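Morning - glutamic acid inputs below, output right after.
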Amino acid sequence: MKSAYVKSVYDTVVQRNPGENEFHQAVHEVLDSLDPVIAAHPEFEKTALLERLIEPERQIIFRVPWVDDSGKVQVNRGYRVQFNSALGPYKGGLRFHPSVNRGIIKFLGFEQIFKNALTGLGIGGGKGGSDFDPHGKSDNEVMRFCQAFMSELHNHIGEYTDVPAGDIGVGGREIGYLFGMYRRLEGRYEAGVLTGKGVGWGGSKGRTEATGYGLVMFTQRMLEQIGQGFEGQRVVVSGSGNVAIYAIEKAQELGAKVVACSDSSGFIVDEAGIDLELLKQVKEVQRERLTAYAAARPGSVYRTRDEGSIWDVPCSIALPSATQNELSLENAESLIKNGVVAVAEGANMPCEPEAIEAFERADVLFGPGKAANAGGVATSALEMEQNASREQWSFMHTTSRLEKIMHDIHDDCYETAAQYGRSGDYVFGANVAGFMKVSKAMIAQGVI
Ligand code: GLU
């Protein structure tokens, strides 16, 4: 970050948003790419474009009181940050996790602006969630929480306003309860208000698989640049939620062997290759931990976080798909030592900045989340398209649209980086390509 203007904007972010470290980190990563762009476009400084970009258009924080199964009243905090609507209605997931706070939601919302811009599908950026922890809650408790959450959120969303979806802790079950409450409160069937709905009541085929599949499609395209593919590769995918499961499925389909995945307590190593049906059974049906996988699968081993790191498992491709800042410099060095060829982010901001620098120094292909994991939100936009036209596309049609979108995002990032003499730098390419789309729209629409 060399430009005085860019630096001063970053200083303002830190000063105005004390303690929101993840938000500072996400802003830093984008601003860090912008020096050459700012130099070429004096109108950005004149119209305070960066100052506007880093300030959310609207932030909503609300109380969510609900009654647990024992009859006790619980109070959680709800958030929706409507960050930028220059390209379309705010779009982005809801995260239910105890770690959620304003800084986390703002970092996610900020990333979402550029990710959504990269899809080219006319969606703005937003994010929301709550510090509610769905783990260990009964279905009824989850339902009551979702209803309480929606009893406030419904005032702020709509198919042309803001369209939430899932993220960590919010899957098909939660979207169902949220949609039901919205429908009841508004008294109409507004299918396009949420995405990630069930197929059969407005959901899109292929949405469940989209983030993981898209991640592998993007990585495949990166690998093609160096004359490789997934065939015969040894892959480690962290996480075992929706993104990880479908990344594993697609990587296996393309002929790779996926040998490890993780949850918040530890990880499994399965040298025979992960048994996907068992993994789905454990995680999606039983909502169990990975220890249940290890118990049911002879030959696999489970290690707790204290016993080691998933990033010490040797692999040629690593797909961090758990959560932010899960991969440190030390982890990156271990992956590099073990011969990793490509790393792509299935989660949002899973690699710490020093880890990304290490991959770049070692010439490891690196796909940043805002490009590599855009397949989920892209398919959400396709769901909105189907809702608006009252159509239901086939699985094949949706996934082939997804594949084209992921390839286009790849090529856009690749070509943008090359234009600025930064060939192969996908971080730079994604930041600049996403930023240019949003900033052009903001300039055209005046000081808003
Ligand atoms: N939460 C996902 C993301 O991080 C998907 C958002 C959506 O489909 O709106 O992009």
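Note: The pocket of glutamic acid is lined by residues 91-93, 115, 165, 167, 195, 348, 376-377, 380 (CB under 6 Å).

O.
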